Amino acid sequence: MSDETYFKELTTKLSQARIFLSGDAKGAMADGxxxxxxxxxxxxxxxxxxxxxxxxxxxxxxxxxxxMSEKNPEQIEVVRKPGFSPLAAxxxxxxxxxxxxxxxxxxxxxxxxxxxxxxxxxxxxxxETNRNKVYGFVKTLESTKSFTNGREVVLVGIVTSxxxxxxxxxxxxxxxxxxxxxxxxxxxxNPRSKELFEKAGHIAxxxxxxxxxxxxxxxxxxxxxxxxxxxxxEKKFSEKDTAIAFMSDVHVGSKLFLDKSFSYxxxxxxxxxxxxxxxxxxxxxxxxxxDAADGIGVYPNQDRDLAIQDVxxxxxLLFNLLxxxxxYVHVFVLPGNHDAVQRAEPQPPLGADIIGDFKKxxxxxxxxxxxxxxxxxxxxxxxxxxxxxxxxAIPNNSYAQPEKAMVELLKRxxxxxxxxxxxxxxxxxxxMVIEKVPxxxxxxxxxxxxxxxxxxxxxxxxxxxxxRTDFQIRQGHIPSPCIMPIFEMKAxxxxxxxxxxxx
Length: 503
Ligand SMILES: [Fe+2]
Fold this sequence. Notes:
The strands form four sheets. A six-stranded mixed β-sheet has the order 3-13-14-15-17-16, covered by helices on one side. The mean pLDDT is 91. The protein folds into three domains: 3-71, Orthogonal Bundle (Helicase, Ruva Protein, domain 3); 97-102 and 232-498, Purple Acid Phosphatase, chain A, domain 2, CATH 3.60.21.50; 131-226, CATH 2.40.50.140. It has twelve helices and 19 strands. Strand 4 and strand 5 (170-175) form a beta hairpin. Helix 1 (3-16) packs parallel to helix 2. It is α/β, with parallel strands linked by helices. Fe (ii) ion (FE2) is lined by residues 249, 291, 336, 338, 445, 447. Fe (ii) ion binds at residues 249, 291, 336, 338, 445, 447.
């Protein structure tokens, strides 16, 4: 915007708040500062004033100076404690990263059909391994139309809709490459049908399920539902007494980034805090599951919530912080919906434009989601953007217990089952299917810690390093900042340390 337009916009917006510029103010025009940000800062400093206010160039210069100093926050210095002899430094790192790199398409109708066909095929293969539960699938849904009444069938398909009929039953439409069927779950009074009806209330759109039932004219009367689910996993134990630290949603650049607690954690990691120093010395791997930086333009008027307006400066600070991680600790950084990469998932790793000349052998920039093998453990990390749609669509889920929603994803063998809840890359393959069951499933996004175990898989949500936002206050969400879950690989045990309260 030209100086003239800038000045005009500033004058108009301030006059609406009854703040007027004196003639010489034009000479103090800000360079590169968002006009709304400047207006909001000026209004803030006069919020108690009664009546009209007149301001001059000196005052504008002061406000601009304050904004610029926020843009260039102080660097954080971490002192490595002399004499700290971490156990993890004695072992070589063992890691393998499987970055997901989807093949983009133009996103036309055929690509969409291919995407769901791939999902269906992958889920059929998974369901077939569940032979103890369902077997003898009908090959095509279309063929059920020629079956006689009363015939028992097992069907596999994608759920395209779920409604409650006027009689109070649940009707689910399932589809495959050949056609669709209408499946009825009766709202019956006996315990078995009550249980089935309750289960049917958990069916989500676009997911693949198997249903057992009997043909009854144009309907299938269901008697059982089977989700793809995961088999029981045997717990692993490492011979090496090392640990993985889990993080997410650091939001560097936000005014609410809890930098003091974060740098306290870094000092702890470097052996400078006595409490739990043994555990600090075991940390060999660290994962940041997205929203490492707060980004820019993620939601309207985000600039008002930013301490660092420049996205490159946000990442510069992030990498400065990561530079304080000891060299023997390997850090894996995924993007999230706030980060400066494409929003559609799977998200590629942060690009060279963002990383700049930052390069360290122990810092790995990976995709979202990312499969990693760390010291023999299969870890699947995903930012968790789809948790929003899971929490709103599937009963008994809430923002207070993200681990429950994560278990729903494991049962569905899919990181993003509900289409459209979050943006997905139009590709011929569905890359969000959980084909390989991990030992640890790790997510963030909800800003609330959660920990559980499901069929032998450790499920961990690593919360956040950001304070409670206005949005969370309006939604009634209560985050759990600065609590870092740590997994000890030899003992197969989780500990969570709260760095927000000081140790
Ligand atoms: Fe976040």
